[in-house]
């Protein structure tokens, strides 16, 4: 190999890709479509659906390329994996800041309720949900799923493919049950997102958490499929690590939601 083509560093210089440009256009179409749809413009929903479908497609093919680079082409060296880990850590930190805004709004309104809501919390006329029914059950389900995803991690480190598959199946099933119970709670809730600051903060905080649970479920399902096809080894499984970190983040956020919004905020 000549000196001009010899790589003298451990980093991966990616090939030119159309997905960043395509993904940005899809994201713009999705957001514009959502705004038009919410304001009842004709074909706004169609624009939103088209943009969201393009966004999902971009995610699938872009991550397909990353998996190919990592698993089949061997480009993800230790240095590259370390960079990806820091990237995932910073992403989770940004997600913490995202939820921090909702908790700030909730505590700002509940610790010192204004006269426009009667000076009390929960506001007068709001019938709150009992924290000891579906919310407590969902808490136990998420904690159990956190244990099962840790089981999967240890199984990967031990090179036990069957144990990893079983534990990931258990985790995904628990995640689906959580989402179903959350949806049932929304249907039966005696208030809506339009019921003042309580309904707004409740549904925004728990709803975005539910969306993160949905994303995490897809994340873990992809890891399950990849494990079936032997993509992970005890020393090369960052894709699963990222999913596990994300899932533990979802668990912790739910614990804060349960304690603050369901339990303390419902007193």
From TrEMBL:
- UniProt key word Membrane: yes
Keywords in alphabetical order: Membrane, Mitochondrion, Translocase, Transmembrane, Transmembrane helix
Membrane-protein topology: Multi-pass membrane protein
Residue limits of the Heme-copper oxidase subunit III family profile domain? 7-266
Segments traversing the membrane: 21-40, 46-63, 84-107, 136-158, 165-184, 196-225, 245-265
The residue stretches assigned to a coiled coil in this entry are none
Q: Tell me a GO cellular component.
A: respiratory chain complex IV
Annotated GO biological process? mitochondrial electron transport, cytochrome c to oxygen
Q: Which GO terms describe its molecular function?
A: cytochrome-c oxidase activity
Subunit structure of this chain's protein = Component of the cytochrome c oxidase (complex IV, CIV), a multisubunit enzyme composed of a catalytic core of 3 subunits and several supernumerary subunits. The complex exists as a monomer or a dimer and forms supercomplexes (SCs) in the inner mitochondrial membrane with ubiquinol-cytochrome c oxidoreductase (cytochrome b-c1 complex, complex III, CIII).
Stated name of the protein? Cytochrome c oxidase subunit 3
The record lists the organism as: Chloropicon sieburthii
């Amino acid at each position: 190999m000549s000196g001009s083509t010899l790589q003298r560093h451990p980093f991966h210089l990616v090939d030119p890709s159309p997905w960043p440009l395509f993904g940005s256009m899809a994201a713009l179409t999705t957001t514009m479509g959502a705004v038009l749809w919410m304001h009842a413009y004709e074909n706004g929903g169609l624009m939103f659906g088209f943009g969201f479908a393009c966004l999902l497609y971009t995610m699938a093919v872009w991550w397909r390329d990353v998996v190919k680079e990592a698993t089949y082409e061997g480009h993800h060296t230790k240095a590259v994996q370390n960079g990806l880990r820091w990237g995932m850590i910073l992403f989770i930190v940004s997600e913490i800041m995202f939820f921090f805004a909702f908790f700030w709004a909730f505590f700002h309104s509940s610790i010192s309720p204004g006269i426009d809501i009667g000076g009390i919390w929960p506001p007068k006329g709001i019938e709150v949900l009992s924290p000891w029914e579906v919310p407590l059950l969902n808490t136990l389900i998420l904690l159990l799923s956190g244990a099962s995803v840790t089981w999967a991690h240890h199984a990967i480190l031990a090179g036990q493919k069957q144990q990893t598959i079983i534990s990931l199946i258990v985790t995904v099933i628990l995640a689906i049950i959580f989402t179903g119970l959350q949806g049932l709670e929304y249907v039966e809730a005696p208030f809506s997102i339009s019921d003042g600051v309580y309904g707004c903060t409740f549904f925004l905080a728990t709803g975005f958490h539910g969306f993160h649970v949905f994303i995490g479920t897809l994340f873990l399902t992809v890891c399950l499929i990849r494990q079936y096809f032997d993509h992970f080894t005890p020393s090369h499984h960052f894709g699963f690590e990222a999913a596990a970190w994300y899932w533990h983040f979802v668990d912790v956020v739910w614990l804060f939601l349960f304690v603050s919004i369901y339990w303390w905020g419902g007193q």
